[in-house]
Amino acid sequence: MSDPDVISGSFLARELCGRVVDELEHAAWWQWGEVNHGGRSHVNLRLRSAQVSPVVPSCEAVIAEGLHVAARTAAAVFGPVNSVEGPNLLRYRHGDFVGPHPDEDPRTRLRPRRVTVIAFLNDRGFSGGVLSLSSHDGRRSVRIPPRAGSFVAFPSSTLHAVSPTVGGNRYAVVAWLH
Predict the structure, then answer these.
(1) Using a CB cutoff of 8 Å and minimum separation of 24, what contacts does 64-69 make?
(2) Domains assigned to the chain
(3) In this structure, which of 62, 81, 109, 137 has its CB flanked by the most CB atoms within 10 Å?
């Protein structure tokens, strides 16, 4: 992968991430994440066994600010941002993973996703949960271990996956730029 394929930066301060995770442990409403194939969404635990929650009200402002910074950083590399889809919170419990997939199928959306932004909220209390990005030809890949307070952004057409989490919970934020 070439450098423009993935960028990274700071999303939130580590201590602020810790406070957000504490709030998520108590206030988030989790459900199995759905996958979209051919314009229809459904739960498929063989492809994705992570849980999703809307952002809890007490965390909306801080996550919105972090996402604003990430979107501004991504726009400098990937071009202007017209709108943002999400954010959603993700929780990976022991054994949870996401299999290889792109975030975009232009046949299924009115507003195609151009850039995926993933922000890591924690990096302790679990192992695994490594994000892997593959080049379009499948010959190169990048492994990105979670680092609390950081984000990565990449074209939504990029094939990516998350390895199984072992131990505690891994938390992240995901959003898509149009």
Answers:
(1) 66/11, 66/12, 66/119, 66/151, 66/173, 67/11, 67/117, 67/119, 67/173, 67/175, 69/9, 69/10, 69/11
(2) 3-33+46-169 (2.60.120.620)
(3) 62
Tokens 């194939």 belong to residue: 37
67's tokens: 């996402």
Q: How far is CA 9 from CA 91, 119, 150, 151, in A?
A: 21, 9, 6, 5
pLDDT for the residue 17: 96
Determine the straight-line distance between the first and last CA of the chain, rounded to whole angstroms: 22
pLDDT of residue 37: 58
Say if residue 32 is exposed, middle or buried (CB neighbours under 10 Å; 0-12, 13-18, 19+).
Answer: middle
The pLDDT assigned to 3 comes to 46
For residue 103, the SS3 value is coil
Check if the beta carbon of residue 112 is closer than 8 Å to that of residue 77: no
Intervals of the chain under pLDDT 50: 1-3
Report the pLDDT value the prediction gives residue 61, as an integer from 0 to 100.
96
Q: What is the DSSP string of 139-151?
A: S-EEEE---TTEE
Give dist(CA 166, CA 163) in Å, integer. 9
pLDDT tens, position by position, 90-118: 999 999 999 998 887 655 656 788 999 99
What are φ and ψ of residue 63, in 5° steps? -70, -40
